[in-house]
Amino acid sequence: NVKLDNKLKNRQFKKESTDKKHRKEQKKLRAAIKDAVLKTPLPLERYKKRPGVCKDEEEEEFVESLPMDMMEEDDLEQIKAMAQKASFLTRDLSSSGPVHAKKRKGEQQGPESYEKMPRKMQLTEEKEEMFCFTVLGIDVFCVKPMSELSIFVQIKKLKELRAMLMETDPYVAVTVRKLVMVSLMEVFKDIVPSYRIRPLTETEKASKVKKETQQLREFEEGLVSQYKFYLENLEQTVKDWKQKKRKRSEAVSLQSYRGLAEVAIRCICELLVALPHFNFHNNIIVTVVPLMNDPVKRVSDMCCEAVKKLLKQDKQGHAALGTVKVISGLVKSRNYDVRPELLKVLLCLRIKEVEVKKDTDDTAPKKKFMNYKDKKKNLSRMQRKWKKAEEKLEKELLEAEASESKDKKLKLHTETLNIVFLIYFRILKKAQKSILLPSVLEGLAKFAHLINLEFFDDLLNVLQHLIQSGDLTYRESLHCIQTAFNILSGQGDVLNIDPLNFYSHLYKTLLKLNAGASNDDISIVLRCLDVMLTKRRKQVTLQRALAFVKRLSTLSLHTLPNATVGILASNRTLMHTFPKCDILLDNEAQGSGVFLPELDEPEYCNPQNTALWELHTLKRHYHPVVRRFATHLCAGAPSEGSGALIVQLVSTFPLPSSHSCLINKFKHH
Fold first, then answer.
1. Residue from 538, 477, 465 nearest 509 by CA
2. Residue 533: DSSP 8-state
3. How far apart are CA 344 and CA 443, in angstroms?
4. What is the largest CA-CA distance in the chain?
5. Could you tell me which residue ranges the CCAAT-binding factor domain spans (predicted)?
6. How far is CA 107 from CA 20, 95, 100, 116, 512, in A?
7. How far is CA 182 from CA 139, 164, 178, 275, 604, in A?
């Protein structure tokens, strides 16, 4: 430390001496320029050339005619030296460089020569890799360390780089701070290890370790410290922008703080996704989640996308659990007055099973190991020894992987899903008219098969009450129906419940489907029909199935080609699931009563007394795939020859990703 202080003092003293000398030279130069401006220049004497005298002889005679005895030898040499330099006559007097600056050894004389020489970086013993990223239209180059030793050396520079976040020059403060934020973010993403660094205990600090271990400890301690200070600076930048505070240095204006805060938020979001395993990740979640509800749409979308990426890539469940806890607290503290995007993020959770379901590993046959007799009979002594060690290792691996990681993952997923359902049930109970209701119903529709059995009755009653209230939009009512039947098709199949009201509501509202360009609801309708009719075929009467086939055929006349193909595919599935539906293809069949298309009850509209006349109209449809599909259904929807229809459907009639269930139905049949 003393050597470093002395070195710093010497460097400052040299700098002060150079600056002082430079100021004196500038002062003399300005005085000379001022005197030259005040004086009136005298006209130069013009000499006529004598005939027969060349130019060189004339210059020699002119030099000989000068009064050399009045000049000293040093002055004469200086004049000759200045005369040989063209830069003396063309020098910019307003330049800030010193007039008589000393030149370093090995530096060439001409400006053209060293300007043409290529710049070379200082070579080090360790190889370094350059990478570039763009910030605000500026290419920023950073050095990526390639070995642990270089990391240990460069970690000391993080503090100096972080100090540049407090740049006070008002002309460059905003740009410098932005670039330093992004540079530090990239550096941390590269040098952070793939494990969480825990603080050392007092016993570990007091114990003696190897030199390499001590270096690693110092590196980890410095890394965590600098990472913590960096995150605190980013968080403080965002707080200053939100509270419209201004630093005492007055380096950054209030108008520029928004751009600075957006860069800080982007860095926080990048670290949220890139370093979910490292220290202070929960602190980052606490910072990002409230910004998902920010009134600035750009900031809100940025944070929502980052959280979605985090939930999609989270396989173990630690990050998902921390995120859901913070979202639950935020929704409750804001009294459910938050943006719907905050709850739509929960749809990205990767939860497929919880502890309420029986683990498949418990029922799977366990691996059998060889007993002693088999080993002695089939293996030699050395082979038995290796086999014993191998089986011991396999048992340890099976115990470590199956029992620990599987149970821990299920426990985390169960706790996460319980908090998600707590959010949904609170909104259903206290804020049914909130703008969050569509997101809640969509989330329930996705995770309904994982709800505990004890909540089924209450939840079905709430959904039925919402549908009967008439306050829901068409899409919200579809999500209610989908949620109810997802419950009944999962663990709820043991319940003796007849959801007749849900069937009647969907049958009544089918003709209200949007037939315009925004027909996104058709995918939800197809999923509802699949879970209501196909998967519950044993609980569905023939009258109900006939009524839905007829109403879907009527609906197919009004929708766009992609929705029409989806509806016809659903009809084909129903005709295979309920073979007696082919009665609708016979126009000579007779039954009791008259078909009542305006009746909203599928059980009592007498659908057996009508026929699918709509298919003959669709056979003259303008789209070729619709025409071929209608012809296929008119022929009784045979299974033979449907492969060519699938090929034409996929190749000549591209469907959106929301209709992937339609393609799966085709492949299944």
1. 477
2. I
3. 8
4. 142
5. 477-630
6. 25, 21, 15, 13, 85
7. 12, 12, 6, 15, 68
pLDDT digits (tens, 9 = 90+) for 431-455: 878 888 888 988 888 888 888 777 7
Give dist(CA 432, CA 468) in Å, integer.
Answer: 13
Closest CA to 164 of 149, 151, 179, 153: 179
Q: What is the distance between the alpha carbons of residues 53 and 49, in angstroms, rounded to a whole number?
A: 8
Output DSSP code: residue 202.
Answer: H
Residue 141, strand partner residues: 132
SS (H, E, C) 592-655: CCCCCCCCCCCCCCCHHHCCCCHHHHHCCCCCHHHHHHHHHHHCCCCCCCHHHHHHHHHHHCCC
pLDDT, tens only, 217-264: 888 898 999 999 999 999 998 988 888 765 544 566 667 788 889 999
Q: What secondary structure, in 3-state letters, does 398-451 show?
A: HHHHHHHHHHHHHHHHHHHHHHHHHHHHHHHHHCCCCCCHHHHHHHHHHHHHHC
Separation CA 310–CA 272 (nearest Å) = 7
User: In 3-state terms, what secondary structure has residue 514?
Assistant: coil
3-class secondary structure, 318: helix
The SS3 call for residue 132 is: strand
Query: Which sign does the torsion angle of CA 369, 371, 375, 381 carry?
Result: positive
Give 627-653 pLDDT, tens digit per residue.
Answer: 999 999 888 877 765 555 555 554 554
Q: Convert 268-285 to b/e letters by CB count within 10 Å (16 or more is b).
A: bbbbbbbbbebbbbeebb
Token readout for 373 is 């007799």
Cα distance between residue 269 and residue 303, in whole Å: 6
Buried b (16+ CB within 10 A) or exposed e, 190-217: ebbeeeebeeeeeeeeeeeeeeeeeeee
Q: Which amino acid is at 340?
A: P
Helical segments of 92-142, H only:
111-116
Residues near 58 by Cβ (< 8 Å), separated by ≥ 6?
49, 50
Q: What is the mean pLDDT of residues 352-363?
A: 56
| 3 state DSSP class of 140 | strand
Q: Which tokens go with 270?
A: 């990048």
